[in-house]
Design brief:
The chain folds into two domains: about 60 residues, 434 Repressor (Amino-terminal Domain), CATH 1.10.260; about 55 residues, no CATH class. It is about 70% helix and about 0% strand. It contains seven helices and no strands. The mean pLDDT is about 85. It comes from Ahrensia kielensis.
């Protein structure tokens, strides 16, 4: 996927038109259309605005590497706690605090290591759709 395709993906994921998204990025609609088509390079200021306004990783936007969305450590910890709680409840709920903390830590590390793809895998695992 090229940078223009990633821009289009972001725009479509937030349900925006090119004109509205261009305004959010503080560029003209014509310039934005050229960025999506790969006819013009995306200026650094626009990269920063997109990453900040739409919670997108600059590494993903520019290079196509890593997770698309940036996630704070606090958000990752909250997600890990939810997944751990659901896992424990699905497994009968009989865990001491030490075991619970170990499970939370494992889910947290998985989310940190694998980003959005890791969360998708955890969801499949929790639904019993992922082989061990």
């Amino acid at each position: 996927m090229l940078i223009g395709e990633r821009l289009k993906f972001i725009r479509q994921s937030v349900g925006s038109t090119q004109a509205v998204f261009a305004k959010e990025c503080e560029v003209s609609p014509r310039a934005y259309a050229a960025y999506e088509l790969g006819e013009r390079d995306l200026p650094v200021q626009a990269v920063v605005r997109i990453c900040e306004k739409f919670n997108v990783s600059a590494n993903w936007l520019l290079l196509g590497k890593g997770a698309m969305r940036t996630t704070t450590l606090a958000a990752t910890i909250v997600k890990a706690k939810r997944y751990a709680q659901a896992f424990i409840e699905n497994d009968g709920g009989i865990y001491d605090e030490e075991r619970r903390a170990v499970i939370e830590a494992k889910f947290q590390q998985h989310l940190l290591d694998h980003g959005d793809e890791g969360e998708a895998a955890l969801k499949l695992f929790m639904e019993g759709k992922l082989d061990e």
